[in-house]
Design a protein that fits this description.
By secondary structure, the protein is of the alpha/beta class. The protein is built from three helices and six strands. β2 and β3 form a beta hairpin. α1 packs parallel to α2.
């Protein structure tokens, strides 16, 4: 399964970014092969609005089946859900830690956003 983890850097040792829409990077990891690749999200770091929606569209275009992050707002949640992407919130530590937690099924699947939107 391909998952996207919000990250502050480009490696598995990078810290998980607690923000989804304004995460600096997404690490796309294949849980079966162990392969991973970083994807830049800096275009959304300083977006006036719509960062969550655009980040969700970009992640969907990467072909992932799940997102692991610290927090997700209502617009990103709606966009990811509409794309059929599972959302797991509350991740912390390194990207490697989050990947291990996902594999061990110790993360909670989000059934709603866990933070309020900035523009609602």
């Amino acid at each position: 399964m391909k998952i996207a983890i919000s990250a502050q850097g480009t490696s598995l040792d990078s810290l998980v970014d607690p923000r989804f829409g304004r995460a600096k990077y997404f690490i796309v990891a294949d849980t079966e092969s162990g392969e991973f690749s970083p994807h830049d999200n800096t275009m959304n770091l300083n977006a006036a609005q719509g960062a969550g929606i655009q980040a969700a569209k970009n992640v969907a275009d990467l072909g992932v089946q799940a997102v692991v992050t610290g927090n997700v707002g209502p617009k990103a949640y709606a966009t990811l859900s509409a794309a059929g992407i599972e959302i797991y919130t509350g991740a912390s530590g390194t990207v490697s830690d989050a990947l291990q937690a996902f594999r061990a099924d110790t993360l909670s699947r989000a059934d709603k956003p866990n933070v309020e939107g900035h523009w609602t």
